[in-house]
Amino acid sequence: MSTDALTIRHHTVPALGTGESPVWHAGQQALYFVDIVAPALFRIDPETDTLRRWDMPSAIGSFGFCADDRMIVALRTGVHLFDRHTGSLEFVVDPEPDIPGNRLNDGKVGPDGCFWVGSMDDRPTKEPVAGLFRIAPDGSCLRILDDLVISNGLAWSPDGQTLYHSDTRQRFLQAFNVAADGVVSNRRVLRTFVNDDGRPDGGATDAEGCYWSAGPSAGCLNRIAPDGTLLQRMDLPVEAPTMPCFGGPDLKTLFVTSMTSNRSGTVQPGTLISFPVEVPGLAVGVFG
Question: Using CA of residue 153, residue 205, residue 117, residue 172, what is the dihedral sign?
């Protein structure tokens, strides 16, 4: 299915190297997102496209909102608390201080109030040396998964008891049962992908429990049932979509970031688009 029948809005944003991690702030009715390579954090009012930018000292893979109005950000130098009013950063933890070739990538605050964040091998070799971590409000860090290349696609089922996770380079989407203490079990691979399917990048779940996966290798979004069945493919007017996010007053607007691509032979900068959907998404967690 294409998006020809949908009202696609192309938001006015700077050319993004790697647009990622869109997160809806319900209280502000605003969308925050990052450009990993800029590196910068952005806030946009989707009604007016008014933009605010905060430059970061190193690559920013992802972030979440905190209960005290700060943000938790995943930088190359580790996880920090960021005060967007003062610009100050407070170091929390570096999950992998002994693996300098890795950097933190996709992350999201879960229903448990913890920041879940994965790493990736940032070297050209791209080996399975990355992991997935759960950062608790007290700063403790629990290693959840090993043997990853590019950790991605974090999302939870509506009841918070199923964790979805992907590895973009290893091309699989998997699910786990997740306990209150963060321990995961009952791993099952829901789906494997080839490039033409759209290798799994960022993800989000809707109120029906379906998982939306951005496929930058094919310019599409895939809506996948909890058992891994492909329900819908949406071809997008951006070459390399990186992550979907539900927003708007009723969580029925889907925002999608993208990264710079030359897949068609012409360089297309990363950007931000949005369009209405019928099934609403889920509210994001708050750290702490």
Answer: negative
Q: Cα dihedral sign for 221, 269, 251, 246?
A: positive
Within 10 Å of residue 241's Cβ, how many Cβ atoms?
Answer: 30
Q: What angle do CA 263, 245, 167 make, to 5 degrees?
A: 55
The whole-angstrom separation of Cα 288 and Cα 269 is: 36
- From 201, 206, 227, 250, active-site residue: 201
CA atoms within 13 A on the CB side of 11: 29
Q: What is the pTM of this model?
A: 0.96
Structure tokens at 275: 């369009």
- Amino acid sitting at position 176: F
Count, residues in the chain: 288
281's tokens: 């998404």
4 is an active site residue:
no
User: Could you tell me the two tokens for 55?
Assistant: 């430059």
Please report, to the nearest 10 degrees, the dihedral formed by the alpha carbons of residues 262, 266, 270, 274 taken in order: -110
Taking alpha carbons only, the member of 24, 46, 19 closest to residue 285 is: 24
Strand, helix or coil for residue 244: strand
Residue with tokens 């999950």: 95
| 96-150 tens-digit pLDDT | 999 999 999 999 999 999 999 999 999 999 999 999 999 999 999 999 999 999 9
Local structure of residue 75 (DSSP, 8 states): E
